[in-house]
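Here is a tokenized protein:
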Amino acid sequence: MSTRPSGGHWTTLRRRLSRRTLLRASARAGVGAAGLALVGCSDDEKPALQQQPEPAQNAQSDPPQQQSVQQSAQQSMQQTAPEPDGAQDPQPQAPSGPARGGVIRAWLPVDRHDRWDPHRSRFRYTQAMHSLMYNRLLRPDSVSSGELEADLCALPEIPDETTYVFTVDPAAVFWDDEPANGRAVTAEDIRWNIERQRSALDADGLPDPHFFRRAAYDRTASAEATTDGSLRLTTDAPDAAYLSSVHASPFAWITNPEAAEQFGDAWRDDPSDVFLNSGTGPYTPLLYNGAELTLARSSNWWRAESAWADGITLTSGDTSGIAGLYDTATVDRADFPLTNATVEALRERYPEHPTFELPLAASVELLAPLSDEVGAALGDPRIIRAIGLAVDRPQLTQRLYDGHGRASGPLPWFLEGWALNERFTVSLPGYREDREADLAEAAALVVGAGGATGSPIPLVVADLFEGFFPGSGEAVRGMIVEATGLEVNLEHRAFADAIDQLRAGERFCFLGWGAVPQQADPTDAWSDTLHSQGARRWSGGVNSELDELIEQMRTTFNLGARQDLGHQVQEMLLRGEAVQWQIPLITGIQLGLHQPWLHPDPRLFEYAWSTDRLSTSWLNTAHESYPLDRELPQLEDEAEADE
């Protein structure tokens, strides 16, 4: 196996961090002496860290540790009021717009990550950290709408429906550290990244299953660096979702070949060494002690109008202490995973602090795959539709989220342009205000299916979901029984076990969180779960019209036209014209507030994949309450100069 060479950037940076800095940072994050020892010892001395077992599902199936959006931008961007006339101690003038300086501090469970290799990671917290250190070919201008913008490359020329010509930004460079030493990003670097994802080999040239996005990158038929600054990609067939699903997806990071050669499989196997990163992004790692990650602005960051803060510190720890961290100005925002009641108490305590709301990106849903077995409890599509109508969404929102949530259609309401307009959905069964009409339709469907005399309906609730919301399973069971007269048997199972059983062909209703959308465009997700040939379609009931609409989405390059097709798919499902085995219920809304000196990019509060917008947020360090003792960790030579 490859091993990391002695010396190099990792050892140099770690050696230069002062002991005083490490102690101060560890104390702030609540790390004991044992945790600090891991930071200070050499590779040979470092004990092996026990890595948490990975969930059976990809990161998008994890329960919600969400970050995302609706906020009052005007309130969030308000400026500090000027000193009144005659003030004895005038404060520094508040900046009129984005200004450089300061250190942003936020809570993020940085201890719950998987791998630093940007091609072999899949945890959402790793993605959040990587989003400040790496770039993609393209990125969403808004993760909620899915419209793309330039990142390492300009938006490509598309001379035909299978060809994409990218131009690399001539200013783009890798970090000015080993192993790339600040060199320019080339088209050949990008081609190498694509081929590495496709070949999926470890440092010894053996197949490595940790390249989780190999199938996505296999949609690239050819990749050719025609010049240092130009890259030509082709697909085998028209693929309208190719750019958003592959090259602007949350994990589509670009690194350099030197990093793969130098880091070897330590990149995959050592989650404790944050310096196993080599990116092009606005921030570089400065300190990681297992509970807190500090990033500093890259010395050769190549894009203006971003990376306003000198640094960003992401701290983890006991969630019960987050409110206290906000009280002491140790973190700049308070939202998930705090309860909304806790946030409301903070809002009362700090009425002058800007507030925001963001959607919990994993919607609550009920899976009810249609069985092909004659006489099965879920063998009639009318029973499945009746179950979907039986759930009282407003009542469930009140029970689970104290009313802070909204009913979700086949696509959650926060996916702007893709989800159906709520003014339209409130006229449809399951979403209309006329509850009696829903109950009457559900009863008629059961009668049409032969009445409530068949086998009991098995209702399985994910154990983790029930742990978050005690009694939720019984509440939903009661709604179904009351509305339909069906017999419903309730049980609890581990989330991963239930998913494996559904995949293997067992048929039952399953209540829990749905998958977090990887991107706003649902073309890939629906091709997998709704199309009759979908790899993750666990339900019976072929519908050729539904298949045709999804296939048209795959070949429709105009965004508005593709969204219109998506609306038609959703209408078919909500009107009962196709089996809706993934029954959407509600999406919770997380309340939040932030310190008055933080001026967030409004896109920071969009769903899930928006941590990178910390780089376009800024601090008013002249604010009277901004903590003057906030500073980046001092390097040893600087510390010695101060003494």
Observations:
- Residues 1-89 have pLDDT under 50 and may be disordered.
